[in-house]
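Lab meeting, item 3. Inverse folding demo.
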């Protein structure tokens, strides 16, 4: 049963305790390796949308990513961003997007055999401190509140605004009404 269940992150799973999933055997081709795989579909109660898996279980295990949102399980960032950062830090992470079909098949089979024998993928051996330093978000804590009063604009007080609104109401009340003619 554990081999049949997809690899998913916490964001892709609904918050309910019990989930009803449908399984389509060999339903689609994997987005990374183009092999047919079992597609799982389930409904998210919060948004009432249907989620499904896009990559096969082998690619998800090898790349340590979610099958639905294609984000890294540990860092919760897209896998291609993580791969680019790991290539800058280590330089040893392989990419399957630029390879031809024969090389892609061979590379996936080799990495799958390596995962089956050792139980670890290439992404498990990475020094996480270097990667986290590269991928750490730099938040600016400057507030986005606009200026209260600019130098070119005069400052309007609340009591002046009330007076203006009262004047408008008085003008509308005193304004003569035009007679309506129904014969037009």
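The presenter then showed the designed sequence:
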């Amino acid at each position: 049963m554990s081999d049949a269940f997809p690899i998913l992150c916490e964001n892709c799973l609904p918050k309910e305790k019990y989930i009803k999933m449908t399984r389509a055997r060999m339903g689609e081709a994997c987005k990374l390796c183009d092999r047919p795989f079992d597609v799982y579909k389930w409904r998210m109660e919060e948004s009432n949308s249907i989620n499904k898996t896009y990559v096969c279980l082998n690619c998800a295990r090898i790349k340590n990513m979610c099958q639905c949102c294609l984000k890294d399980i540990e860092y919760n960032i897209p896998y291609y961003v993580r791969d680019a950062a790991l290539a800058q830090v280590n330089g040893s992470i392989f990419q399957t997007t630029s390879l031809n079909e024969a090389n892609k098949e061979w590379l996936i089979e080799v990495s799958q055999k390596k995962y089956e024998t050792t139980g670890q993928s290439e992404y498990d051996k990475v020094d996480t401190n270097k990667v986290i330093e590269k991928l750490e978000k730099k938040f600016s804590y400057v507030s986005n509140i606009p200026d209260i009063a600019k130098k070119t604009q005069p400052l309007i007080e609340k009591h002046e605004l009330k007076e203006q609104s009262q004047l408008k109401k008085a003008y509308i009340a005193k304004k003569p009404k035009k007679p309506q003619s129904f014969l037009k």
